[in-house]
Amino acid sequence: MASEIKLPLFAINQILHGNLLIGTIPKETGMLKNLKVLDLGSNQLTGPIPPEIGNLSSIEKINFQSNGFTGKLPYELGNLKHLEELRLDRNKFQGTIPASNSSDFRSNAHGLYASNGSRMGFCRSSQLKVVDLSYNFLVGTIPKCLEYLPRSSFQGNCLQTKDPKQRPTTQCGGPPIKAHPGVNTKHKPPTKDDSKHQSNGPEPAWLLVLEIVTGVMVGLLFFVALFTTVHKWKRKPSIIIPWKKSASAKDYTTIYVDAEAMRDVVTYSRQELEVACEDFSNIIGSSPDSLMYKGTMKGGPKIAVISLCIKEEN
């Protein structure tokens, strides 16, 4: 059963990874002055990161990956002078990557800010060694002060880069917006994807279970259909279906597929599946011969993808 997040005020390390926590991060989290590690990854937390997070003066590691966080990344993250590792991947963050003074920064008179000086965002965090912002909905460009990071830290977003692993424009609500740290984007017209990803309430548990069960059933039906087709038409000419990234002939698997029987089946490219399934990290089932992934295609439909291991003798 999911539970709401509650943090003790005198903690040094808070590791609550994978505990089905729901709700939002309370602003009182900023009062944990001695906190060094805050790990809330792989839960069901929603809402924005409170700006009070910038008051964690001793924090060294923050892990919020694989949740449902929304909103913009707070500039107050730049106040964390001792922060070395920041993992915010696989959420629904929007807006630009905070790097320098920007007119879209909103001050909060009721907040517990740790600094009244110039707010420079991530460019002030000179200790940062690991940053992962992948698979969100961030726009704009990669700040120059973060160009030392690997490109995998930014893939799966809507950034203006030449990286082919960015989201398609259909998932970004239209053409990329030329947004820079000093440009106010708060008046951008809302899109269908924006309204979907800004939902504040957690997804009901029964709906999540229904989605998983539906995905598993669809996956099993597809597996049975594929298995039957392979055995029925095993003597017909084969086509080689590459699954791995390597171009080596050893990495290709040969299976028999009847093109006529599969004529009405919708097909997707590997790149589309890779983005939809979050780089094939969202595993929802496995067997000795297969792995099953859950994905979300553009437009909202959810899919199940199965990776099959076909023995060489077959």
UniProtKB/TrEMBL annotation:
InterPro entries (alphabetical): Leu-rich_rpt, LRR_dom_sf
Transmembrane segments: 205-227
Key words of the record: Kinase, Leucine-rich repeat, Membrane, Repeat, Serine/threonine-protein kinase, Signal, Transferase, Transmembrane, Transmembrane helix
A Pfam short name: LRR_1
EC numbers, comma separated: 2.7.11.1
SUPFAM superfamilies referenced in this protein's UniProt entry, alphabetically: L domain-like
GO CC terms in record: endomembrane system
Residue span of region Disordered: 159-200
Keyword Signal part of the UniProt annotation: yes
The keyword Ion transport is assigned to this record: no
GO molecular function, one term: protein serine/threonine kinase activity
Cell compartments where the protein resides: Endomembrane system; Membrane
Recorded topology in the membrane: Single-pass membrane protein; Single-pass type I membrane protein
Name of the protein described by the UniProt record: Non-specific serine/threonine protein kinase
